[in-house]
Write a sequence for this structure.
């Protein structure tokens, strides 16, 4: 393969030859981004389908004979893992990261296009391994997405004694390798390949967010990798890293002396930063969208950047708030409760700044703006319940109840997905050159927004009643009133409606490819560089002969004396058209 | 906001490959940090019975040091445009690293045949896991060594690639440093 045929400003360009090179084994960041988006959305739909199966059992117990306790646990586990890792992490960093970093920074491609391509194919392989576990004899693992030993690798847990858990761990290991390849590329590109004039403090906030989320991932995923490797050892070679002495039916198993809590530490040292690996890119999308669609510069750019850096730093010292009930020294619990509350400060700064950006702004109620507003209230709701759970004394009674399920779905499932959808609506014209249908977009938005509240708000009440999460059936317990069953039915019906509504988005995506209104080059009037490319959608190499030069920050809206209400980053002062 | 193009400057004066490899080394450090943390945590449990460290590991360590010396030799050759010196250094580094990895596998066999099986004690498991993870990363360096060596042997004196050789050398010194820390931990605990 000849990669050297085109050279711009000393940077060698990858030159695709033929269909396979252009669309399949492509090294162009935009194609790789689309590949990430398509695979992540496909596996995400699978994850959503699994959640609907769970909801069917909870709302209408016993209606489907095929959903037994084992398959229910498998659905719970795979739903969680798919959504957190294979959908959101991959889509935000692999999809948005790949598409936006080179375009927004004014470079031609990632620093290492070949490694970038490898990153996608490793990700694809990890998804294949994950999906393969559905087809092995005992099915996928049903250990819960946290994969806590000892139960995750023992007989009795679905997939525990078969290949299910091994495939899960192997898939995670491959995913981590894929992420590392992609992540090193994002870091190098952000640090090295910015256009002339694009200083770090002129980068769009979403690039800051992706950059910091990538750092979090690169530093946190090794903990999961170590945990996964050691757990594979325990499962396959019967070592005892995590396995204590275990008696089964009066017999002593070969294990002994290990510490399950060690796994919990390793898992959550990864697991909590993972929340921010998902949340930071969502913050970034909101920062971009809110400024563009409210026609106003982002409030407190510098403060936003420092708040992000603070969040990224503190994210590493809060992990054990997931382990309050694991037998923790109270002083340690106090420490982690304090750090957990402290991380709310920079997060609150961001929320205030978004709200202040909206203050007195010329808000356009476009679909992306609707998603921004929905994100703000949802993230606030989810964040507030986090204050409950971050405190040890409140967490202990609420631990492992539906309150926790309601909380984390609000804060790290619905919120990022709302940001994700906003981002998809916003950047669809840049990718395809066409607009998405606005009416369909609004219908999809309202069903999704109201629907998710109807699903997750009641879960907080169910949690207050003490209903445990993860239970296959709630029927045999005296302390659970009939109203919980009624509420569960209601939630299930809402979940089915919201689930079906996602096909409106899919339909809109596919139909708009051919029939959507032709988008102008910069349909939203944004200042950032991805809308300033010569062609729309941007061609291979992004910028034609000349790389852009950056003269200003990315949020130059409503400049006094200017004719337009936005000045793109690559327009020098002398070219600004006066009013 | 400044309203003029800022000067274009690479981050800390590094090139793309250097940033990539230095960040990669940070990630690998984190990986080994976790595994050593887990080791130090687990060794306090009652069932821990330390592994006798095979004396072969000292020989292997010397090999790894010599591999690093080879890389340093090669780098100084590349800088001075001394083709012969670069090649000799690279060859030396390759031979000693292969000897190191072979020596590690030999040490495993030695331990295994003395009854220190992988799963019979957590100390054994950690010993095998830590040395294997390190050897795996050394082998990754060997792949990069093949690429650089191929370039150097194929090219003429004007294509000595001092940057590639230097960066490869940095990774090999780093692998030696990691081994130094791990080995010190293994023999002192």
């Amino acid at each position: 393969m000849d990669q050297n045929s085109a050279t711009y400003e000393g940077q060698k360009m990858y030159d695709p030859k033929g269909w396979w090179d252009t669309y399949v084994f492509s090294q162009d960041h935009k194609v790789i981004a689309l590949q990430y988006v398509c695979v992540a959305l496909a596996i995400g739909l699978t994850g959503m389908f699994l959640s609907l199966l769970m909801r069917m059992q909870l709302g209408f117990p016993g209606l489907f004979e095929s959903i037994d306790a084992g398959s229910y646990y498998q659905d719970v586990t795979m739903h969680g893992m798919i959504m957190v890792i294979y959908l959101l992490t991959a889509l935000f960093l692999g999809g948005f990261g790949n598409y936006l970093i080179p375009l927004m920074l004014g470079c031609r491609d990632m620093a290492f296009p070949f490694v970038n391509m490898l990153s996608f194919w490793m990700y694809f392989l990890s998804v294949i391994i994950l999906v393969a576990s559905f087809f092995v004899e005992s099915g996928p693992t049903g250990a819960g997405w946290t994969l806590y030993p000892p139960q995750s690798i023992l007989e009795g847990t679905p997939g525990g004694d078969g290949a299910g858990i091994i495939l899960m761990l192997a898939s995670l290991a491959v995913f981590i390798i894929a992420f590392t390849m992609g992540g090193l590329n994002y870091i190098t590109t952000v640090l090295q390949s910015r256009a002339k004039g694009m200083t770090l403090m002129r980068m769009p906030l979403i690039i800051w967010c992706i950059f910091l989320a990538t750092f979090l991932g690169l530093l946190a995923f090794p903990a999961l990798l170590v945990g996964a490797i050691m757990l594979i050892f325990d499962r396959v070679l019967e070592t005892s890293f995590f396995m204590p002495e275990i008696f089964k039916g009066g017999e002593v198993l070969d294990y002994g002396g290990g510490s399950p809590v060690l796994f919990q530490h390793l898992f959550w040292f990864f697991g909590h930063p993972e929340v921010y690996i998902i949340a930071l890119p969502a913050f970034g999308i909101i920062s971009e969208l809110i400024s563009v669609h409210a026609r106003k510069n982002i409030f407190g750019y510098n403060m936003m950047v420092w708040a992000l850096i603070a969040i990224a730093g503190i994210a590493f010292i809060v992990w054990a708030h997931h382990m309050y009930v694991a037998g923790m020294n109270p002083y340690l619990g106090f420490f982690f409760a304090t750090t957990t509350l402290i991380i709310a400060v920079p997060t609150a700064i961001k929320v205030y700044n978004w709200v202040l950006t909206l203050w007195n702004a010329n808000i356009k109620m476009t679909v992306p703006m609707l998603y921004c507003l929905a994100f703000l209230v949802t993230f606030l709701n989810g964040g507030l319940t986090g204050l409950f759970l971050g405190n040890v004394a409140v967490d202990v009674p609420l631990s492992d109840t539906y309150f926790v399920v309601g909380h984390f779905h609000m804060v790290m499932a619905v919120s990022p997905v709302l940001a994700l959808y906003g981002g998809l609506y916003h950047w669809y014209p840049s990718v395809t050159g066409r607009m998405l249908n606005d009416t369909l977009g609004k219908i999809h938005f309202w069903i999704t927004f109201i629907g998710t509240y109807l699903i997750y708000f009641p879960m907080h009440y169910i949690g207050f009643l003490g209903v445990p999460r993860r239970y296959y059936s709630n029927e045999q317990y005296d302390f659970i009133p009939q109203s919980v069953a009624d509420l569960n039915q209601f939630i299930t019906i809402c979940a089915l409606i919201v689930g079906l509504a996602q096909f409106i988005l899919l339909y809109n995506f596919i139909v708009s490819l051919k029939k959507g209104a032709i988008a102008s080059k910069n349909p939203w009037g944004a200042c950032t560089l991805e809308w300033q490319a010569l062609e729309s959608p941007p061609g291979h190499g992004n910028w034609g002969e000349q790389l852009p030069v950056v003269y200003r920050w990315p949020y130059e809206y409503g400049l006094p004396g200017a004719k337009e209400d936005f000045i793109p980053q690559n327009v020098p002062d002398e070219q600004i058209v006066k009013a | 906001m400044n309203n003029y193009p800022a000067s274009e400057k690479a981050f800390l004066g590094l090139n793309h490959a250097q940033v990539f490899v230095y960040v990669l080394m940070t990630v690998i450090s984190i990986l080994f940090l976790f595994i050593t943390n887990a080791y130090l945590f687990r060794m306090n449990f009652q069932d821990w019975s330390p592994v006798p460290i095979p004396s072969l590991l000292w020989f292997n360590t010397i090999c790894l040091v010599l591999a690093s010396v080879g890389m340093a030799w090669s780098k100084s050759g590349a800088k001075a445009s001394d083709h012969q010196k670069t090649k000799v250094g690279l060859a030396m580094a390759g031979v000693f690293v292969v000897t190191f990895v072979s020596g590690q596998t030999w040490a495993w066999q030695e331990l295994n045949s003395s009854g220190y099986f992988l799963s019979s004690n957590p100390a054994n498991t950690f010993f095998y896991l830590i040395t294997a993870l390190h050897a795996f990363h050394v082998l990754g360096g060997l792949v990069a060594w093949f690429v650089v060596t191929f370039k150097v042997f194929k090219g003429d004196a004007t294509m000595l690639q001092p940057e590639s050789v230097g960066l490869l050398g940095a990774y090999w010194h780093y692998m030696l440093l990691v081994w130094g820390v791990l080995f010190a931990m293994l023999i002192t605990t």
Observations:
- Residues 73 and 120 of chain B are 43 Å apart (CA to CA).
- Residues 1-8 of chain B have pLDDT under 50 and may be disordered.
